[in-house]
Each structure stands twice: as C-alpha cells, then as structure tokens.
Design goal:
Number of domains: 1
Pfam families: zf-CHCC (PF10276)
Order of helices and strands: EEEEE
Strand order of the largest sheet: 1-5-4
Strand content: 25-35%
CATH class: Mainly Beta
Protein name: Zinc finger CHCC-type domain-containing protein
Distance between the termini: 30 Å
Domain Zinc finger CHCC-type: 13-58
CATH superfamily: q5lls5 like domains
InterPro entries: Znf_CHCC (IPR019401)
Structural class: mainly beta
Number of helices: 0
Length: 70
C-alpha cells in the first residue's frame, strides 16, 4: 500500500524542510530526531518543489501548480 506524499501550500519561494515539522515532542526525544537534516528548497517556474528526503511537495499559492486556486 503506497501513500501519497504530503502537499504543503506556501506563500514563499524559499522553504525549509526537516521531515519532522508535524511530529509533536513527547517523552525524552526531540521531533527533529525523527525527521531528516534540514534542507532549504527554492520553488521555481513550475510552481512547486519536492523534498529529496521525504518527498513532501511545497506548492506556491497562486502559482502554476496551485490546484486550490482553480
């Protein structure tokens, strides 16, 4: 069973991803320990960029890849 990667809509052309943004801390661990190294990504003329670690897709709001605007 495959799951579709998460899509994040943003208003910024430059985004960061650490794979643990939505993980809540509980116990004695830190959320970033469950993710991946923080990377900075740049959205280009396609209107989106995919994280090479976790496949999370960042879509520029109002850009060419924004299906919500339709």
């Amino acid at each position: 069973m495959s799951t579709q990667p998460e899509t994040v809509y943003t208003e910024s052309h430059r985004v960061s991803c650490d794979g643990a943004t939505d993980i809540r801390a509980a116990g004695n661990y830190k959320p970033a320990a469950l993710g991946h190294p923080r990377v900075w990504l740049e959205i280009d003329e396609k209107g989106y960029v995919d994280c090479g670690y976790c496949d999370r897709r960042f879509v520029l709001k109002g850009g060419p890849a924004d299906q919500q605007a339709a």
